[in-house]
Amino acid sequence: MIILTRAAIGAIETAIRENEKPGYGVRVAAEPGGCSGPKYSMRLEKNPEDGDVVLEIRDVRVFVDEASMNILGGATMDFSNDADNYGFSFQLQQEAQSCNSGEGAHSCNCRGSGFAQ
Predict the structure, then answer these.
(1) From CA 96, how far away is CA 73, in angstroms rounded?
(2) DSSP assignment letter at 102
(3) Nearest CA to 44 among 15, 81, 73?
(4) pLDDT tens readout for residues 68-108
(5) In this protein, which residues make up the domain named Core (predicted)?
(6) What is the model's pTM?
(7) What fold, for 3-110?
């Protein structure tokens, strides 16, 4: 399960509307990373692929492949309009290690709109 904040849901709804993609959902993917943590990607898609986990929150559908769900399970996805922190961010539930610290929650950001066309 991935938790979406109201801001994240609103940003996804806005992207779908502005890109004239009614009925689309958003694919969220994560790949294991090095010291800086996972690498995230997002793109609008019409339908899920076989084996995807499909989350439906309000009118937003989120598609996540199994490998990405292993990384993102329990994560909170947020969106900020703040000029210094604009874009989507993921707060992972599980503890992650980084180069500087071996403990604590790990947070990473996808700067900009975050959507691939």
Answers:
(1) 13
(2) S
(3) 15
(4) 999 998 899 999 999 998 999 999 875 444 444 444 445 55
(5) 2-99
(6) 0.75
(7) Hypothetical Protein Aq_1857; Chain: A; (2.60.300)
